[in-house]
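User: I'm preparing a small set of examples for a lab meeting where we compare how different chains pack in three dimensions. I only have the primary sequence for this one, and I'd like the structure in token form so I can line it up with the others. Please keep the answer compact; I'll paste it straight into my notes.
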Amino acid sequence: MKRTIAGIAFALLAAAGCRQQDVRDFSVSLPAMNEANAAEIEKDVRAALAMYRGVDKSTLAFDAAARKVDMKYDSMQVAQKNIEFAIAKAGWTANDVTPESVGAKAKSK
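Assistant: Understood. Below is the structure token output for the 109-residue chain.
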């Protein structure tokens, strides 16, 4: 009986630590992005996301024509809203999160 209980306890502890990563794709709409300011927005977004370990910076793919940036992120380390808020704090609308909604000044289009 003691071995059974110990075995169950060990199995539960082992299963609890199994999930270490949850890498997901995420697309952020950047409505202000265009060919003229794409380099500035890319620089600002990269700087804004630099502090987030959960964002895979090597997967950042900016598309000025589609006005978006695609990326991979680990949802166990950072949430989508954190990413949107960071970009908005840098002065750019990210999906529906505006700079004004996070107390930042919007940059000009």
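A couple of notes for your slides: Strands lie at 23-29, 55-63, 68-74. Residues 20-96 form a domain with the Alpha-Beta Plaits fold (CATH 3.30.70.100).

User: Perfect, thanks.
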